[in-house]
Amino acid sequence: MGVLYYDLSEQFLASGLKFKYYGISRTVMEVGFELARADADVRFVIFSPAHERFFEVTPRIGADSPTGVLDPGLPPEATPIRMRYTFPKPNKLRDFLYPIALWGARMINRRRWRSVPADAVREVNLDGQTLVSLGRPKIMADYLTALARDGVQVKLNPLLHDMIPIYEFAHSSSKLFSNNFTHDNHLVIKGSERLLSNSAFTKAEIERFSASGHLPPLPEVVAVPLCHELRPTNEPVNQTGPDEPYVLCVGILTGRKNLECVMEAMLHLHDTGRPVPLLVLAGAQRKRTDTYLEQVRFDPIRDRLHIITNPNQAELRRLYEGALALAIPSRMEGWGLPLGEALWLGTPGLASNAAEALREVGGDLAQYFDPEDPKALAGLIDNLQSDPEAYAALKERIAAAKGSLRTWKDVAQDILAATGTI
Questions:
Q1: Shared domain check, 23 and 140
Q2: Domain total in the chain
């Protein structure tokens, strides 16, 4: 068995705990936890923008970690400022001034690094070594650029989570994010030994965009589907859901995440005289979401809205367990952790039929609807409320299937197998 280096830079660069439970950071954390317990030679590293080099770290695990799962074991005071190392296109003024800004950020990062105990890190040379990264492509693009300047050739095995920003609808107000995303993925793909993807759908998207010329020629692409498991933690539960039945939405926004469909479904239930359950919106607070919800047309159902901001993992688990159902109306997803977590805890999932990855997650356990048809979602919600026998039978069927659902250990073992570490 060879040595595998696992990249915790995503957590290091976002050490503020606000977003530690969501999306990519969550995946890095959970897979890292399982790799730390695996029967393999796995070592954990972070890229330091202060030094433009990698350091080996000893992560805190379980009760020793503030996340309750895993973190890099470095003080939050050491969290660096991150600035891009490359851009898609040249710009004379930016390219003249930017090195000065980079130098300033590096000096600040050096000062912050002083908070790191000397015995907590060890510089490591990754030349010729296998590095697995589940972080964002922009972070990988930065360190690949820095390593290339030093002549270091790492065997990068990144897990790509989606190609959504390449689509126009993902960021219709600005091309900047899409251009940067595409640029970063070009660098990552060109610098990789193989690619991992978080679903069969994402694998097909990577291959399609490569064939169309939006992405470069590909190395081997291996699908490593994410999972359904929601790990229990012993964090305090200060935010809880309502006592009466509620529909839960986790991290949905307007646009691609399609909060509009859920709100229109709730309004339709009200307008047709059907019972309107509470709607719990859990996740980070966003101004655009607040502005959308402030519309006068939602006044008739405003008292049915319940917002829970940034729940921790224990609070999120409690929300799933108490929900009538989870609604996930996204027009596209790379995987769909909330749907899997709801099913893991025995809660029915109502999922968009337009997001192919959600079919991978939900299989025949979830119920599907057209995300452009709020009335269809309203009908599914109404059926769950009005037919207790059918609802109980659905819950029993989901619970009986738990043994077939994927765990974070499954994901970690698939990564070890794909990289030849076991």
A1: yes
A2: 2
